[in-house]
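re the bet — no i am not wrong, look at it urself. input seq straight from the record:
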Amino acid sequence: MKIEVLGTGCAKCKSLYEAVKTAVKEKGIEAEIVKVEDIPSIVKYGVMSTPALVIDGKVKFSGKAASPGEIAALL
């Protein structure tokens, strides 16, 4: 599983990245977690509001930071 956190490095983006790490650890699954900060890569997903969460190439949500529990439900 590949999980990407899209964002330019704002506080919400960092919070989402940490929440993803926590959710993956709590679920006990193996996942590659990637932080994507360059704007052209973010735009390729059609995301106009960050942070955004992408799981296996599909945008799950954008424009908010989610809790580890919310993220775990998507995994």
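see?? The first strand starts at residue 2 and ends at 6. told u. also The radius of gyration is 11 Å. so pay up
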